[in-house]
Structures are given as C-alpha cells and as structure tokens.
Amino acid sequence: MKRVWILVLIVIIILGIIFIPRIFFNKGDDNLSFKILEENQIPEDIVNMLPKYQDKERALSCEVDEEIYVIVTRGEKRTAGYDVTIEKIEKVKTDDEVEFIVYAKYKDPKPEEIVPQVITYPTVVAKLEVDSLPDKIKLQTEYME
Q1: Residue ranges of the alpha helices (H) in 26-129?
Q2: Rounded CA gap, 128 and 59, in Å?
C-alpha cells in the first residue's frame, strides 16, 4: 500500500512539473488573420506616410479608420528584383504588454540575374483582423532561395 502512494505521488509530481509552467507562463500566442493588400487597396493615409518609413528594414503597425495594418519594409535597394512577403503574424501576450511578431520572407535577385538599375523600396501592407494596436512589434526575417 505504501508503494502505491509513493508511485501516485511521483506521478503527480512529474505531471505538475510538466503542466504547471504551461499554466502560469503561457504567453497566449495566437496566429492572427490578415490580408495582404494590393497597391490600389492601401489606404491613402498609409500611402502618404510610407515615404517617411521605407528607407530602413522594419515592421510597423498603424490604425487607419478603425482598421489595424502592419507594414513591412526592406529599405532602399539599388536594383529591382527584391521582394518581401508576410508568412504569419503572431500575437504574444505578456503580463502587461501585447506584442506582434511579424514573420517575413525576403527574396533577393540572383547574382547572375539581369535586373534594372533603379532605386526600389520593397514593401508589403497587411490588414489585420484585430481590435487594437500592439504595444510592440518585432520583425523576424528569413531569406527565400
């Protein structure tokens, strides 16, 4: 009988070690729904403010007409052939903050590819299905082959 109680206690301790951290430290990660906008679908307010922010690689969030948007820019490029896409956007909740993590894929022209010598600013704009802006936004990038 004593062995059964010891075995039950060991099982409870092991299960507690596994599940208690998940209960207390769960950050509430969620993948957010979003729609990539075509150039003609981007709100005029965003189009007007883009030149101020396109010179560097970054992720931005903004609210226009009670809609939330995420913008990913690649910065200034000296040739065509560069691209950026958004793979997913994750919402991470901590005790006092909400952070969006934007997972973007970058595509560069191949070294042997002939591309026009023109300054470009690869940018993508996504409309999110959320109610409010995040406290922080973080950009995670990956290069495509």
Answers
A1: 44-53
A2: 14
Spatial neighbors of 30 by CB under 8 A, at least 6 apart, are 90, 91
Sequence letter at residue 74 = R
The helix or strand, by DSSP H or E, that contains position 125, with its residue range, turns out to be strand 123-128
Q: Which residues is 105 bridged to in the sheet?
A: 85, 142
Alpha-carbon distances of 56 from 74, 80, 126, rounded to whole Å: 6, 16, 18
Say which amino acid occupies 53: Y
Phi-psi region for residue 112, left (φ > 0), alpha (ψ -120 to 50) or beta? alpha
Q: pLDDT category, 7, cuts 50, 70, 90?
A: confident
Q: How far is CA 35 from the centre of its chain?
A: 13
List the one residue out of 73, 69, 143 whose CA is nearest residue 108: 143
The DSSP line for 45-71 is: HHHHHHHHHTTSEEEEEEEETTEEEEE
- What pLDDT sits at residue 28? 52
